[in-house]
Predict the structure.
Amino acid sequence: MGIQIKILLVILFLSGCTALTPVKEPEEVKKNRFNGNYTALHIRSMWTICSVKYASYRIPALVYTPICDCSVDYMRKSYSPEEVLNLSDNESRRIGPIISDLCNNNPKPIPTTL
């Protein structure tokens, strides 16, 4: 009889460890804010071009990293890869100040911990 009580206690203990939680309904799929047609190479290239510009002025990476992230995000939200490749010099010059105002004044902070 002692073993039966031990088994019963183990079953009660284990059943107490499992909580019945309600299953959440799946969230609606949010529309992606970025154009998904960019290749990783294209994104890295845009970011590198931005970072080289700042690094050439000896601006620390902690300063220009969020600015370049913001710049690339703006381009991905606003233009398709084909549109970026086909921008004229005048269009590029027109976009530059827009991105500069947007990203230099409101850069996303860099996380200091993972």
